[in-house]
Amino acid sequence: MNATRPATAPPAGPGDPIQAMPEAPLSLRERKKLKTRRTIRREAYRLITEQGYENTTVDRIAAAAEVSPSTFFRYFATKEDLVLTDEYDPALIEALLARPSDEPFLRSCRTALVELVRNLPQEDREELLVRMRLVGDVPALRSRMLDAAGAPQRLYLAVLTRRAGVQEPTFAMRITAAALTAATAEAVLLWAEAGGAEDIAGLVDRTFTVLEEGFAGL
Known about the structure:
Layout: H1 28-51, H2 58-65, H3 69-75, H4 79-84, H5 89-97, H6 105-118, H7 122-137, H8 139-147, H9 150-164, H10 171-193, H11 200-212
Helix pairs in contact: 1-2, 5-6, 5-9, 6-11, 7-8, 7-10, 9-10, 10-11
């Protein structure tokens, strides 16, 4: 996908997730950094699966990934951040900005998110399952996830304001972004609670059916 930003969009503000997207293909140095980040994450999930979250220290993760603890902290501020962050945001932003600007936003999100999760490589899908099961099982992670819920909400708001060509999100935009964030997070957590048995793309799609129907019948 080669998304372009709307010509009427205002300049990106500080912390804008769209502004943070690279304008050019990743350099060799950036690709190496991404590879290191993924290696740290992969080894962490392997250790957590084998010995539990609490018993998996940063030192053990760093040793398994063949990096120093200081290198670990250059990529992840805390062990919790390793579980709660991912690399999907740029792909989602690109997919959303590639949708027609006059398309209803829920429909744009539905198409983009369903396609994103449907096309997740098996390794990424397995890691997502581990992550979300951890969030469900470890109270500290669940609490941190709720605290960090503003990150995807900011992503949706950034795209909404870009599409509308406005500086500040409206009340309706904020409510829409909040509902999307909560609903999709709950859907993925339910998928993980069931051991990943259900088709995650289908579950996300059903989530948008509920949202688009305005919770009819409840």
